[in-house]
Amino acid sequence: MKVVRDSKFRHVFGNASKESFQDLRLSSKPLETTGIRGNSKFICIPWEAGGGGTLAVIPSTRYGRLPRDLPLVAGHTGGIMDFEFSPFSDNLLVSASEDTTLKLWQIPDEGLSSHLKDPVLTLEGHGKKVSFCTFNPSAENILASTSFDMTCKVWNLAEQEVSFTVPVPDQVMHVKWNYNGSLLAITSKDKKLHIVDPRQSKIAAATKICEGPKPTKVEWVGSSSSPEECNTIITTGMTSQAERQVCLWDIRKMPEDGSEGGSLTALTVDQGTGSLYPFFDPGTQMLYLAGKGDSNVRYFEVVNCEPYFHYIEAFQSRVPQKGFDFLPKRCVDVSVHEVMKGLKLESAAIQPVSFRVPRKSEAFQEDIFPDCVAGLPAMTSDDWLAGQSRQPILTPMKPGTQKVQASGGSAPAVVSVKDLKKQLAEAQEKIKALEEENATLKAELAKAKA
């Protein structure tokens, strides 16, 4: 009889980097988001500055103390509620603000050399402050946002307009696209999980997920090897006894009328007070739980049968975290068997954390590094708006292998209003010159006939 469960991830451990980003001036405004975002080039955090919301975009290799006069993204007139990097371009950043707008920013490859005040584009359409924004993981130029005006909007960045608007019953606490970008999962203040089908402009299913009043968070579960089976969702929230819990749901069993149903299991975590943010890695089928105010990150292995969650370990530190985020899977270092790389946001520092599988061999480990999301769009915005659904493009993680090419474009092709005005002015000048030339030719023709 086996006492210990067999698992290749049973000994995964978290390792804090010796290098960190220091002397931060974090914004004191409380947010419902993770509070930090990162990719292979940059790290973004909300920065404390007078007048409106500002973001600091730090090159990922710029360790050590940050200068006091750090160049900032400063174009909003109200506080910033959420922000996110594009999954297809490390240089594109979107921000949502209390000033009711969303703005898209182009970050130079070398980072900011001066304050960035002119966005690529500004999206206006919400009636109240915008709470969340998130890019579609499969289709380029598709962005979802939620607002205190009780709506969820899906934008077409190429046309700079709203494509779909879905009313939501209460204030949104979290929003996530599913694996192929066809559905949205939304948790709200009414303690319910709502599955939104944006292209049908409706809530397809809903169910009550917790009893406690604290904000709830959501994450989709699935497998990159079997993406069509991505029908389960993880939520975090509070019980009626003020205990933090993590629950697993099957959307196929959820009722359309919003009554209770679809629950697979519920696991009580502890009696902490901060929101638990779930992060799921499809490649390893591991779930990471990072709570605001905690000094640890718990991680579990998720299976498709009872008990569904298998606790592995927890990364422990002495300093509590104000936020936590994970870099895209393609950013991990496979040479040290790193399966996930996180960013721990502290009150005055950012601490990178590496999660590794201990292996004696230094060779590439194919069993723990299946193909990962390539960071390339699988389809255009027109394809998605027409109703198509495609799985994200995958790429091998083995060093030296040929990377896949995009089938729907290498990066979002968005033209700023400034560039459009410039193109319009050039076109008008050209039209004016052609009209003058035409008038001259007509005059010459008339003179020749006379």
Automatic annotation (TrEMBL):
Family annotation (InterPro entries): Coronin, DUF1899, WD40/YVTN_repeat-like_dom_sf, WD40_repeat_CS, WD40_rpt
Domain DUF1899: 2-64
Keyword check for NADP: no
SUPFAM superfamilies in the cross-refs: Putative isomerase YbhE
Regions annotated as coiled coil: 417-444
Transmembrane region(s): none
WD repeat start and end residues: 73-107, 123-165
Assigned keywords, A-Z: Coiled coil, Repeat, WD repeat
Family, per entry: Belongs to the WD repeat coronin family.
PANTHER family for the chain: CORONIN (PTHR10856)
Protein name per UniProt: Coronin
